[in-house]
Amino acid sequence: MSFKDLGLSAALVRAVNDQGYDTPTPIQAQAIPAVLKGGDIMGAAQTGTGKTAGFTLPMLQLLNSRPVQGNGRPVRALILTPTRELTAQVHESVKTYGRHLPLKSTVVFGGVGMNPQIQTLRRGVDILVATPGRLLDHMRQRTVDLSRVEILVLDEADRMLDMGFIHDIRKVLAALPRQRQTLLFSATFSDEIRKLAAGLLISPTVIEVAPRNTTVEKVTQRVHPVDRGSKRALLSQLIRDGDWKQVLVFARTKHGSDRLARQLEQDGHTSAAIHGNKSQGARTQALAHFKQGRVRVLVATDIAARGLDINQLPHVVNYDLPNVPEDYVHRIGRTGRAGKGGAAVSLVCVDEHKLLRDIEKLLNCRIDKHVVPGFEPDPNEKPQPLFKKPAGGRRPPAQAGRRNDGARGRNSASAGRVR
Ligand code: AMP
To answer: pTM to 2 decimals?
Structure first.
């Protein structure tokens, strides 16, 4: 099957082919015709499945084929995403696939000045990609008008809810016309997502592709048991001995990410850290250097790494295991993108045995354990708690501290889960 068979116009097929893609991915094969028909969509898909093109291509076609109602250049499509990085990436896709069409687009996200965004919005755009927080700021200042939106996309809706955006999203929704097309994408369909969807979508086409284990199956997974204090030396050795050219390393905290990147530099591996305390410029630069191969190791927290479009990533390392088992699946999904395999290595110390068991339970399989000679864990080492008890709060770590790492710079200092 080709993109043309899905009903896309010549200009869009050309733009996709320019990227070297001639076969739609499963989500594209399902989503593109469904969106073109004009109906609502509830799509279960993670990054790496090609979902961005799955909603961007038909959205561009619909906008381009319909005349603008009324005067001026109103915002006709709104795409909401959880993080700055994802917003920037989705916007890149909009520009890439829309390159042969006369449509205009822009992004708004927090952490950068409002004024340039206001200027661009004032000149008029057809498509707006935004994080909910900054979009609300614009709405409050009346620097954006959403009253003529025809298509709304909620991308990574589960993450937006996890990050506490539900109230912001509801305020944005209240400013949109009731008659519109709504496309909701989420990695999982939790009860919360279903509740949101029930109030938003009208007889949606439900699209489910690549149950998450499909991605996981393509990835070689391995656990290296190791002492807490020897993780860094082991990681350095693995990078050196394996001659790893590009490795994404997940660490639990922002501070820990910075420290690890510094230490790896000292060990002779070019490294950078990316997390919510970094300025937008620093994050963009670190990502660009990593993609260009100028930086070999990128150390990231979960939220900062979420949705990063890094292709064919050969190695992912869990320097710290995530405390939410689903995050493990998201992390190692970085290596299995668009059909390519990869290797995921987890350095697991005695404090993390329970987390590892939870992950294996979710995956319904045991992960290979391999002790690297010279890094045998001390059998007498006592576990230490990974999370400080939230002061006065009773929230478990899985819900605590999941704050916006994206818009408005509300960084996570909440107890329990410091990013
Ligand atoms: P996404 O799930 O939207 O983040 O896309 C994952 C990656 O797959 C991106 O790097 C896309 O550029 C790439 N991609 C999208 N569509 C296709 C396709 N039809 N064939 C191969 N790669 C694709």
So the answer is: 0.62
